[in-house]
Amino acid sequence: MLYIYYEDKEQLLLATFYYVSDQVIDAALDSFSRGKDLREGLRRQWHTLFRIGLERPELFRYHETFTHSAWMTPEIQARNESRAANLLNAVDQGKQSGLIKPVPFPLLETFMFRPIYHLVQRCLQGSFEGTDEHIELAFNMAWDAVADRRNT
Predict the structure, then answer these.
(1) DSSP 8-state class, residue 151
(2) C-alpha–C-alpha distance, residues 54 and 121, integer Å
(3) How far is CA 32 from each of CA 5, 9, 39, 116, rounded to the nearest angstrom?
(4) Closest residue by Cα to residue 64 from 15, 1, 125, 21
(5) What pLDDT, in 10s, does the model give residues 32-86?
């Protein structure tokens, strides 16, 4: 029955990833767009993504597993970057204005966004309490890692 909808298991995996990834990206973009400035937008995004990770851990686990697998291709990465263009453009503008360190995006992603996945996993394992205070503290630490303090 499954192969009526999908040609093979690869197509099923890809369709599932697109579904999951779109949900995560849409939530991130929605919360980000409600911020007054870049820092506030990223802070809102952090809280939203953290909440999704705790409420729907299967989404985060699948997204993380797929992203770090051989299934993740440059074409899929480009598709996701295209969907998240507003956020990526805002980060680029932050780099140009001196608000964010002028470093390659993979470094910014590692220090700004990847901690969310790690901390959500720790919460789900019971070794970290994801209170609003802890999430805010973690965001501030991530922001400190990417903010360009030379201009402030």
Answers:
(1) G
(2) 9
(3) 34, 34, 9, 15
(4) 21
(5) 998 889 999 999 999 999 999 999 999 989 999 999 999 999 999 999 999 999 9
